[in-house]
Automatic annotation (TrEMBL):
It comes from Sorlinia euscelidii. The lineage of its organism: Bacteria, Pseudomonadati, Pseudomonadota, Alphaproteobacteria, Acetobacterales. This is Regulatory protein RecX. Residues 1-22 are annotated as: Disordered. It comes from the Bacteria. Residues 9-22 have a biased composition (Polar residues).
Length: 186
């Protein structure tokens, strides 16, 4: 919400000052849990697992990478840090941009094969749709008590993230070997 204040200067001109602090709408505040601090950020399932110590920093980083890759492959956009704006890595024509997206989509398909379709769907729920563990539990285990189902889903999600980290580590090892032995594929 943008708040403005009008003030009349001594010269008769009206000056407008904008308060650039933004707040979620009341409806959004009721819908999600927010982390303390500014700016307001939704506490995701991933953040909850990291804070509780159920996943490692490496698994957290793998999940963030998977999320960035998914958003790029699916929707075609990336968050680019200001330090990388000047590089030519992100300057593509239409064809090379689509080829880059296709390569990332291929990587995601390989990850889906490695971790399984159900685990991949849970990654989509938790990292893209930002569904809470309670909501996941209601979809996956509607016959169980809510608290018990939430704990089980949380543990399964933590295991999925650990497996995702292992898959990324294995891919990095394979890329290193491939660079050292360029004719390994032949």
């Amino acid at each position: 919400m943008l708040k403005t204040k009008k003030k009349q200067s001594t010269s008769g001109q009206i000056q407008v000052q904008a308060d650039m602090t933004t707040m979620p709408t009341p409806e959004r505040l009721r819908k999600s849990d927010f982390a303390a601090g500014h700016p307001h950020r939704v506490v995701t399932a991933l953040d909850a697992l990291l804070k509780s110590g159920d996943i490692s920093d490496q698994a957290y980083a793998a999940a963030r990478k998977w999320r960035r890759d998914y958003l790029f492959a699916r929707f075609g956009y990336q968050e680019i840090s200001s330090q990388r704006l000047g590089t030519t890595y992100y300057k593509h024509d239409e064809i090379s941009w689509r080829m880059t997206r296709a390569e990332v989509w291929r990587t995601l398909a390989e990850i889906r094969t490695a971790i399984g379709a159900e685990a991949h769907r849970r990654l989509e729920w938790g990292l893209i749709e930002e569904v809470s563990f309670t909501q996941m539990a209601a979809k996956i285990m509607p016959h169980r008590r809510v608290d018990d189902a939430r704990k089980r889903v949380s543990a399964q999600f933590a295991l999925t993230l650990s497996r995702l980290d292992e898959v990324y580590q294995e891919r990095r090892r394979q890329e290193i070997v491939k660079r050292r032995l360029p004719n390994a594929d032949a």
